[in-house]
Write a structure and sequence with these properties.
heterotrimer, A mainly alpha (296), B mainly alpha (297), C alpha/beta (434), B: 297 residues, MetI-like fold, 13 helices, flat, C: alpha/beta, D-Maltodextrin-Binding Protein, domain 2, six-stranded mixed sheet, five-stranded mixed sheet
């Protein structure tokens, strides 16, 4: 089957290696340029001494302008590796939990029809708009009464950040996964049911593999938002050992933006893991319906 | 769509309870407190309420006569429209284009993701330097065409909307792009083969296969666009804080932040939050009715 | 199948990371355990301060804390963050739930009211009943008494001043002499005219973002010391008149074109850059900006001097004060084992030597003997020391006494007044209504 498709695609390609295709590539490349350039801009500024950035921000850091000082300052002043560990632990845990919990919730919402479904859906949409400062104080109070806030135990501190972040990302994940799952034809699930699978088996063996790309998408955004969520981190992470990389680097590269060089270096250091995570995951986002499921 | 599999509702509880329990504890309960807060008098975030307002609905009266709030809501609605047309629209076009080509798919997919991962502070700085009045990149670029110095104030009364909206549009196109392209990838390749056999190509393929099957994903994007516009904060605040210029550029997200943190009027901020949530629910429901969700049996 | 692999991979990574972190965590607790066993002290106190990683004095703070730990054998668990609104909120929230630290370095103005009102911090008076020489190196009336009951609760380190920064190059090129004492408003206007004629921007300020400092001085100019801290109750009382006239002065500067072209829409960072690029001559700001000059320009090119005066103000009267200090919380005070450690901590952090180090950018201190000057001070700081040496009165900023809402409202309206859509009177009335 694959070969047949390849053949027909090649045919169409040959006949259309044309103006249309070139235009497409031009558009795509132009847009790619606008999206990549800012990142390049940040990277090259991170290698310049701070005084030079405001005046020469668009120039390349060649010769005299090149310096490692921003990175060395960052590594010296604070414990970057520890912060990375904190960030990764928290964000991976949040992603993992959200994917599972939102996954089953989205499955239930998408496939079942029941009274109150519409209301629940509205409730989910509503919760996406709750601003952080509204929920943070009662949550802080609550978690303090459970004893997981301001403790000297690192895992408990992690927990105090993980739980609110999971809650915060569930709504988004459920909405997005609902959208994907409800556009998957139900035939496969029905045939599996006829073969005697129960609901849970259907979910694990049929829905999960088919919706894999959507799960990957939800995972990457959950990871990104948990990673960058400064507000929650500022409230619950008090001691240096508990800082995440985002919180840490926000501290040293001050809002008033006086030290642009350090800020640029901070941005690069913060962004690298996310980029890696995305590159790994985006292989999952490509076409990937396993032959087994289709034939089943 | 009442498939027989899903007649038995018992597993439904198992599926829904974990998510809704967490959301109940961490989201809905605090928000209920927030409703109470909008009736009380709180002088600073983190402080306890010092009694109820007098009269208890005074925040709501203030809300309706607040000029800046009206500006904020109007601007946000405009932003919402732009988001739907430009962010989702351009993302759709890009996703369809990428789906059609063979070489370089991966590269483009990674490239378009960049804007979302860079922090708003860094992006704000970049855009501020681009739009800078004296020596910014845009003004310098325009000087290449005219022969004299170009000193356009991109943040003045007539131009601020473009200067604020354009970066926001640009940043989140990548987000919708990823969402849509995942949707495209969920479409079984069997359908494309069947279409090819039937002789459909290019545009027909888009019109009769991709778009309809993307329907639900596009609905999702619509909801995300609505809620996103109501909440957006980071980039607009970094570029145009406090309603610059002259209180014109308030958005619901930035105004709410300003009221809560700058003016320390936490109870009024809570009121604004409630209004935002209500607005969101109402607009989302309207969108749902207009673009009915389709199920595929 | 791939999904399972991915899950497995993530789990392994997470587990691995947990293990590593766990090991890391254990080692650090072991270390502190050993330390307290060895030496005499052995108490452990929690300290919250605003000496966040970006604060100019962060290095000094860490050094002083380590010295304390070495001297006394106590351990300090410190948490610091830049002093922003979120930090204030988290401090208040801590007190609310009972999670407050033992020693707190915090604001001593209206922001501290909840702490005083809840009796959550101990007054200096009470501490002196047990430790008679507590804060004995500080002047009584400069310690920042609480607005609630007028008593001193916190021991300060360094304070701030607000004055005028002048760009020597621009002044020279415009044929204007550098202002010194006795610089009047009329002389100032005449100089601005000259500077404007020479093609420079006389005043670098963003009325959109930071009209704060010009506001203080214009009000002081029009109202005088005695009235300065009074908030108007009506438009036509003494304070009200001072505010109206002060704001009118500011509008005058805008109308005469002495401000940058985009003063109503640009941010502070952008307009201040004009000073570094030798495009503007004057800027009124505070002591915290000295560091900015050191980083972004040549400090030798700038001078700090007293802003122009009007009849009711002498040029040796400056806005300034001390806005933060060390508190000991009642929670720590009531704990016998921590009391000594906390008192000793504050004593060491506010000793003459430490305070002098912290105020090396020419800050105001409350020290009875004055700060020990830093021999390595740059040119700019030298002019600051010279100016401070001539000061006769320092008075706090009246904007620190009004509520956040009123302040935001008033300053938000400055640009609207300048733009002409609102009169000065309307702006003040609006603030009064908040």
């Amino acid at each position: 089957m694959r070969n047949k498709r390849k053949a027909s695609t090649e045919q169409t390609l040959r006949s259309r290696l044309s103006f249309g295709l070139i235009i497409k590539y031009i558009i795509l490349t132009l847009w790619a340029f606008t999206t990549i350039y800012p990142f390049i801009w940040v990277v090259q500024n991170s290698f310049k001494p701070k005084g030079m950035i405001r005046s020469n921000s668009f120039a390349l850091p060649l010769g005299k302008m090149f310096t490692w000082e921003n990175y060395t300052t960052a590594f010296e002043r604070v414990n970057i590796l520890g912060a990375y560990v904190n960030s990764l632990v928290i964000s991976i845990s949040v992603t993992f939990l959200v994917v599972i919990i939102a996954g089953i919730a989205a499955y239930g919402m998408a496939r079942y029809s029941f009274r109150g479904r519409r209301i629940l859906q509205s409730a989910i949409v509503a919760s996406m708009m709750f601003p952080a400062f509204v929920t943070i104080i009662p949550v802080f109070r609550m978690q303090f009464s459970w004893g997981i806030v301001n403790t000297s135990s690192l895992p408990l501190t992690w927990l105090s950040v993980i739980l609110p972040q999971v809650a915060g990302n569930l709504a988004f994940a459920i909405i997005v996964l609902m959208g994907y799952i409800s556009s998957v034809p139900i035939v496969l699930e029905e045939s599996a049911f006829l073969e005697g699978c129960n609901i849970y088996q259907i979910f694990i063996r049929i829905v999960l593999p088919i919706a894999k790309p959507s799960f990957a998408t939800v995972a990457i955004f959950t990871f990104l938002w948990s990673y960058n969520d400064l507000f929650t981190q500022m409230f619950f992470l008090r001691y240096k050992e508990t800082f995440t990389i985002t919180r840490l680097l926000n501290e040293i590269s001050s809002r008033s933006g006086v030290n642009y060089g350090l800020m640029a270096a901070a941005v690069v250091l913060v962004v690298l893991p996310v980029l890696l995570f995305y590159i790994i995951l985006q292989k999952q986002i490509i076409k990937g319906i396993t032959a087994g499921a289709v034939k089943g | 769509m009442n498939s027989m599999i899903y007649k038995n509702k018992k597993p439904l509880l198992v599926f829904l309870i974990p998510a809704f329990t967490i959301m109940l504890i961490y989201l809905y309960y605090p928000f209920a407190m927030n409703i109470y807060n909008s009736f009380s008098d709180i002088k600073g975030l983190g402080r306890a309420a010092t009694g109820l307002n007098s009269p208890w609905y005074s925040n709501y009266i203030e809300l309706f006569s607040d000029q800046k709030m009206k500006i904020a809501v109007l601007n946000t609605l405009k932003l919402m429209l732009c988001t739907i047309v430009f962010q989702v629209g351009i993302a759709l076009v890009l996703a369809l284009l990428i789906d059609n080509i063979r070489i370089g798919k991966n590269f483009f997919r990674i490239a378009y993701f960049f804007p979302i991962i860079i922090s708003a502070t860094a992006l704000g700085l970049l855009f501020n330097l681009i739009f800078l009045y004296d020596g910014g990149m845009l003004n310098n670029f325009l000087e290449l065409f005219t022969r004299h110095e170009v000193l356009i104030d991109w943040k003045d009364k007539s131009r601020w909307m473009f200067t604020m909206f354009a970066p926001i549009m640009w940043q989140y196109i990548g987000f919708y792009f990823v969402v849509i392209i995942t949707g495209l990838n969920n479409i079984s390749s069997e359908l494309y083969e069947a279409a090819a056999i039937d002789g459909a190509s290019g545009f027909k393929c888009i019109r009769y296969i991709k778009l309809p099957l993307l329907h639900n994903v596009l609905c999702t994007c619509l909801i995300l666009a609505i809620t996103g516009s109501l909440k957006v904060f980071d980039l607009p605040w970094t570029m145009m804080p406090t309603g610059m210029p002259l209180d014109q550029s308030w958005l619901t997200g930035t105004y709410m932040y300003h009221v809560t943190f700058n003016a320390s009027n936490v109870d009024y901020g809570s009121t604004i939050a409630i209004v935002i949530v209500l607005l969101g629910i109402v607009i989302a429901q309207i969108a749902n009715i207009v673009f009915k969700e389709k199920d595929y049996c | 199948m791939k999904m399972k692999k991915l899950i497995a991979l993530s789990l392994t990574i997470t587990l691995g990371v947990f293990t590593l972190a766990g090991c890391g965590g254990k080692t650090s607790t072991d270390n502190t355990g050993d330390k307290s066993a060895e030496t005499k002290g052995g108490a452990s106190i929690t300290v919250v301060s605003s000496y966040g990683a970006d604060d100019g004095n962060r290095g000094n703070f860490e050094e002083a804390v380590k010295a304390y730990e070495a001297n006394t054998g106590n351990t300090v668990k410190e948490s610091a963050s830049n002093a922003n609104e979120e930090w204030k909120a988290s401090v208040h929230a801590d007190f609310e739930v009972g999670a407050e630290p033992d020693v707190l370095f915090f604001f001593n103005g209206v922001d501290s009211n909840p702490l005083i009102e809840a009796n959550a911090v101990v007054s200096i008076e009470e501490i002196r009943a047990e430790y008679p020489d507590y804060a004995s190196n500080m002047k009584e009336d400069m310690m920042g008494a609480s607005p609630v009951d007028g008593k001193n609760y916190s021991v300060p380190v360094n304070g701030f001043w607000e004055a005028m920064f002048c760009n020597k190059t621009v002044l020279e090129k415009s044929g204007v002499t550098i202002p010194t004492d006795g610089y009047t408003w009329d002389q100032f206007l005449a100089d601005c005219e000259k500077i404007s004629a020479a093609g420079y921007t006389p005043i670098a300020v963003s009325f959109h973002e930071v009209p704060h400092y010009w506001f203080e001085y214009c009000v002081l100019n029009n109202g005088g010391l005695a009235n300065h801290l009074n908030v108007p109750a009506a438009l036509d009382d003494e304070a009200g008149k001072a505010w109206v006239n002060g704001l009118s002065d500011m509008k005058e500067l805008y109308d005469k074109g002495y401000l940058p072209d985009n003063a109503l829409s640009a941010g502070d960072a952008e307009t201040f850059q004009l000073m570094a690029e030798d495009k503007a001559a004057f800027a009124v700001d505070g002591s915290w900006k000295c560091g900015w000059f050191a980083e972004n320009a040549d400090p030798a090119n700038f001078v700090v001097t007293t802003p122009p005066t009007k009849e009711l103000r002498k040029s040796t009267e400056l806005i300034g004060g001390i806005s933060m200090g060390y508190y000991i919380t009642r929670k720590a005070w009531d704990d016998e084992s921590k009391r000594d450690a906390c008192v000793e901590f504050v004593k060491q952090m506010t000793s003459d030597e430490v305070v002098s180090k912290f105020s090396s950018s020419g800050n105001v201190t409350a020290l009875k003997n004055g700060a020990i000057p830093d021999p390595n001070a740059n040119e700019l700081i030298k002019t600051v020391t010279e100016m401070n040496g001539k000061v006769t009165n320092v008075i706090g900023a009246v904007q620190d006494t009004i509520s956040g809402e009123q302040k935001t409202d008033l300053f938000g309206n400055v640009k609207i007044v300048c733009d002409g859509s609102m009169t000065v009177e309307e702006a003040v009335t609006s603030m009064l209504g908040k």
